[in-house]
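User: Sequence for Protein-export protein SecB below. Tokens please.
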Amino acid sequence: MAEDNNTNPAAGAQAEDKPQLKFSLQRIYVKDISFEAPNSPEVFKQPFKPKVNLDLNTTSNQVAEDQFEVVVKVTARVDDNESGTTSFLVEVEQAGLFRISGIEGAQLDQTLGAFCPNLLFPYARECVDSLVNRGGFPPLMLAPVNFEAMYAQRKQREAQQAEGTQA
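Assistant: Structure tokens for Protein-export protein SecB:
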């Protein structure tokens, strides 16, 4: 039994050399929000035949030594499919404050560009749905987004542009 309580001092020293990974979500908040229905009430007099234009963007910036703000910006412009008049325009900047340490380089970039936006997007979706519904329109049910794939595509474009500038 006494042997079970003994620890290997070399193993403890190796564990201390490794940087400790820490990741926590500190706060989720709406940074900016906007809803416009420029052609109401006339838009309600005709059948609703929407044409949705969706723009999605993410940004991140370091606000302290181990704190990062990540923002998912969703812009949805819905026009009438027949007349082309704008039914509504909604913009939401859903943000989160993350404490991240022990992650660096490409892994940190991927965490900020893909993992954190995946956590924030459901909140942005709910906010967009709520605003659209409060504007008198049917909910705009945004499909889930694969931020991992978006991140990979962005990195591929950046690599192609870097090759193009070197050539």
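Helices lie at 2-5, 9-17, 105-134, 147-166.
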